[in-house]
Structure formats: structure tokens, C-alpha cells
């Protein structure tokens, strides 16, 4: 009898091990740079500890442009992945098609509504139903500066555009590339939205970008922005065209360049190169944008696959993502801040602590807005229309006058 019991216990252990091994998620994402992959590993390992396997579908390409193309191909072929990293308006578009799994029960169980900021919920919910699990909050209006170069310049971190140009001049004199940039439309757009915020402030950003106001898009403040963009281009090196964002970060890390304008996923690159904030690099809000935040939040959507086993794995993944301890473990590596407001900042470095404090301040002060370049300002078509004009102008293919005529036209046509 005892032997039979032991044998059946062994069989049930085996059976549950097999069930565990079979339960897995296929995840489409674009986290392929060093810091991103390190953060993704935190998630993979967390799921492994919960018996959920991981099938990786990485699609390289900053900001997820190529990943979204790959997703459309998978869905068209009738084979959507289990879980997909997604941003802002893209989440809404897929939700509108009715293909995303409903996360209401889990959200209620874990109390998401009480801890996820309203601005993020606006993209995690559709028609009052939860359809996405936010993993973080990034923001785009940051500047990453090589500390040794800053010290050698004898400069204080700049607080406005004039200060920025003065610092870049000093880097020029040191014989390094003043501003590391990757010439890809989304990176051009990321730089542009910081300059828009710096020159015009949050009211102007809202008017021009969120409200797509033609006068703002073609007016005097925007002229200043495009003039600044032309001037900033003079501080790039000759090989900026097409460069990936993490290679631009590497230039700052290695001291070949003085600074990079980029969202705080760049911090993940500095950290994965063993750099310490305040010692090796300095993080500041893009000069002139202190007190305001352009945010983007990576979220995971779970496609409705009509399969109970897959749904169980999807729910485990969504639950893991919203776990407060996971939010700390993941976001301290990724460079982002938690998607929950109840997570302490104790384990975050100075840049992370600043990011968390800035987010609270901006949310309370009404100076928090979605990043256009990262899918939280306008639907994709409008975003792409802005990128086209900004990139052509940055590359010298059109003049500032032409950009000011084309920008409102292109945006209107894309709406
Ligand atoms: C952003 C995304 C970040 C980071 C970055 C560069 O859109 O939110 O998580 O991956 O692109 O790829």
C-alpha cells in the first residue's frame, strides 16, 4: 500500500512538473539592447520561478516600430503571440479590434485601480476594461552626460537651451563629439519633443502636439524649435545617420561623446556597463524642461487566444508584472520607474529616485503629458507624419520655412 502511495505521489509530482513545463508564454518585445535584455531577464527568471516557461520573440528596433510590423504579420497569419510589449495608442488600436484578453478579474484581485496612476490607466483600459498590464513608466525628456567631460568643461549641468549650447561648445573644445545621436526617425522625434517642451513649456507642448493645433505647429515658437534642431545637428558626429540609440549611449559611456538626449532606458545601458550615476555619468532633465514630464509606459497585452492553458500562463505573467517586489527588481535595472505609486524608492539610484519624485510632482502639478515619439501623444499615423518632417529637416532636406509649412499639413492629413 505504502509503495502504491509513493508511486502515485511520484506520478503526480511528475504530472505537475510536466504541466508546469508546458505552461509558457511567447513574448514579442523589442528589448534587445544590453540594459533592456538585463531587465527582461528579471521577468524571465521571475516567471520561471512560478513555473511559467518563456518563448522569446525579440524584434530589434528602438521604440518598437519593427516589433509592431512583426506583430501585424503574426496576427494576419492567424498566429498572434501570447503576450506583446506595447505602447499607448497602439494598445488602444488593438483593443478596439476586440482581440485583447480581458484582465478585469486580476486587476480587481490585485487592486490595480488604486495604485496605477490615472495617466497610465488611460492606456491600460479600454471601454472601462483592463486590457494591458503596465510594467513601468519611462520618460523621454532626459539628458545623459559623461561626468569626466562635464568636470573637464568646468560646467554646471545646463538649465536652459543657452546653457546646453555652451556645454556642447565646451565638449567640442575637448575634441569629443558634443552630442551623441542616432539618426533614426524615432530618435529625431525624441530629441524634437524635448526641444518643443523646453522652448514652449507644457502648455505649448499640449497645444502643438496633443491638440495638433495648426497655428502652434507652424508658428514662431516652432520656428525656434526647428532652428534649435539645426543648431543641435552641428554637434553630432559625421556617422550619426541610422545609428542605434544604445550605440549613441555607448559613445557617452566610453567618453567619445559628451552627452546624449534620450529617455531613461539609456540609464539601463550605463548601468549594464557598470557605470554609477553621479560618478561616471550625470542625469538631468533636458535643459528647460525641469518640472515637466513626457512619459511612456511599456505595457504587456495578452492576446485572446481562446485557450485555457495559455490564458492561465498569461494571467500569471500579468500578475507577476504588477507585483511590487518585481516592479522594484525590474525597474531598477531598466532605468524606468514603477508603474505603481505604492512602491518605495529605497532601492533606486539617484536618477531613479529623481524620476519617481518628478513623476509625483508632475502628476500633481498638471505637467505630465504623453510622449509623442513613444506612442503616448497621438496615434501612430500622426506620430509618423511628425517624424517625417522632423527627420527631413534634421537631415537638411527641407528648410525651417518648409518644415513650418509642412508640419501642420502633414499632421492634419494624418488625422
Ligand atoms: C521605448 C520603450 C523603452 C525602450 C525604448 C528603446 O519606446 O518604451 O522600453 O525599449 O523604446 O527601445
Report low-confidence residues grouped into runs of 5 or more: 1-20
Strand order of the largest sheet: 2-1-3-13-6
- Which CATH first-tier class of the largest domain would you pick? Alpha Beta
Largest sheet report = 5 strands, mixed
Offer a quick outline of the entry.
The chain is an alpha/beta fold.
Structure description:
The chain is of the alpha/beta class and 415 residues long. It has 2 domains: 24-138 and 296-356, D-Maltodextrin-Binding Protein, domain 2; 140-295 and 367-414, D-Maltodextrin-Binding Protein, domain 2 (3-Layer(aba) Sandwich). The protein is 55% helix and 13% strand. It contains 19 helices and 14 strands. It has helices spanning 2-22, 34-49, 65-76, 88-96, 104-110, 112-115, 118-124, 147-152, 161-173, 185-210, 214-218, 220-233, 245-253, 266-272, 308-321, 324-334, 350-365, 380-394, 400-414, and strands at residues 24-29, 53-58, 83-87, 125-126, 129-130, 133-134, 138-139, 142-146, 177-179, 257-261, 281-285, 293-296, 298-302, 368-370. The strands form 4 sheets. Strands 2-1-3-13-6 form a 5-stranded mixed sheet, sandwiched between helices. It has a 4-stranded mixed sheet with strand order 9-10-8-11, sandwiched between helices. Helix 10 (185-210) runs antiparallel to helix 12. The longest helix is centred in the middle third of the chain and has 26 residues, at 185-210. Residues 1-20 have low confidence and may be disordered. It binds beta-D-galactopyranose. Beta-D-galactopyranose (GAL) is lined by residues 30-31, 36, 62-64, 87, 138, 245, 265, 296, 298, 374. It comes from Paracoccus alcaliphilus. Residues 1-21 form the signal peptide. It holds the Pfam family SBP_bac_1. Keywords: Signal, Transport. InterPro entries: Bact_solute-bd_prot1 (IPR050490), SBP (IPR006059).
Amino acid at each position: 500500500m505504502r509503495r502504491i502511495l509513493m508511486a502515485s505521489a511520484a506520478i503526480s509530482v511528475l504530472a505537475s512538473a510536466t504541466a508546469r513545463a508546458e505552461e509558457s508564454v511567447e513574448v514579442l518585445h523589442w528589448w534587445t539592447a544590453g540594459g533592456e535584455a538585463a531587465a527582461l531577464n528579471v521577468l524571465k527568471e521571475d516567471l520561471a520561478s512560478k513555473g511559467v516557461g518563456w518563448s522569446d520573440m525579440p524584434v530589434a528596433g528602438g521604440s518598437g516600430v519593427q516589433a509592431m510590423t512583426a506583430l501585424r504579420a503574426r496576427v494576419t497569419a492567424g498566429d498572434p503571440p501570447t503576450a506583446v510589449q506595447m505602447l499607448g495608442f497602439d494598445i488602444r488600436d488593438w483593443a478596439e479590434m476586440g482581440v485583447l484578453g480581458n484582465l478585469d478579474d486580476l486587476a480587481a484581485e490585485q487592486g490595480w485601480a488604486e495604485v496605477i496612476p490615472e495617466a497610465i490607466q488611460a492606456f491600460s483600459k479600454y471601454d472601462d476594461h483592463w486590457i494591458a498590464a503596465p510594467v513601468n513608466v519611462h520618460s523621454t525628456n532626459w539628458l545623459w552626460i559623461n561626468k569626466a567631460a562635464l568636470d573637464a568643461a568646468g560646467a554646471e549641468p545646463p538649465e536652459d537651451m543657452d546653457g546646453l549650447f555652451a556645454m556642447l561648445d565646451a565638449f567640442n573644445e575637448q575634441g569629443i563629439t558634443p552630442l551623441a545621436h542616432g539618426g533614426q526617425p524615432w530618435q529625431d522625434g525624441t530629441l524634437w519633443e524635448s526641444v518643443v517642451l523646453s522652448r514652449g513649456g507644457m502648455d505649448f507642448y499640449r497645444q502643438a502636439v496633443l491638440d495638433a493645433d495648426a497655428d502652434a505647429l507652424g508658428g514662431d515658437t516652432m520656428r525656434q524649435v526647428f532652428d534649435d534642431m539645426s543648431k543641435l545637428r552641428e554637434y553630432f558626429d559625421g556617422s550619426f545617420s541610422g545609428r542605434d540609440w544604445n550605440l549613441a549611449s555607448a559613445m557617452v559611456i566610453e567618453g567619445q561623446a559628451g552627452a546624449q538626449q534620450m529617455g531613461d532606458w539609456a540609464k539601463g545601458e550605463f548601468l549594464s556597463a557598470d557605470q554609477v550615476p553621479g560618478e561616471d555619468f550625470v542625469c538631468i532633465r533636458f535643459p528647460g524642461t525641469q518640472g515637466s514630464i513626457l512619459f511612456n509606459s511599456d505595457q504587456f497585452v495578452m492576446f485572446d487566444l481562446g485557450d485555457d492553458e495559455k490564458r492561465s500562463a498569461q494571467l500569471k505573467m500579468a500578475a507577476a508584472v504588477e507585483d511590487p517586489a518585481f516592479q522594484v527588481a525590474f525597474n531598477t535595472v531598466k532605468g524606468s520607474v514603477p508603474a505603481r505609486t505604492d512602491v518605495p524608492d529605497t532601492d533606486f539610484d539617484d536618477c531613479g529616485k529623481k524620476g519617481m519624485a518628478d513623476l509625483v510632482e508632475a502628476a500633481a502639478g498638471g505637467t505630465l503629458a504623453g510622449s509623442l515619439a513613444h506612442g503616448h501623444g497621438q496615434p501612430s499615423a500622426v506620430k509618423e507624419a511628425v517624424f517625417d518632417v522632423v527627420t527631413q529637416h534634421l537631415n537638411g532636406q527641407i528648410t525651417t520655412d518648409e518644415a513650418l509649412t509642412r508640419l501642420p499639413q502633414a499632421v492634419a492629413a494624418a488625422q
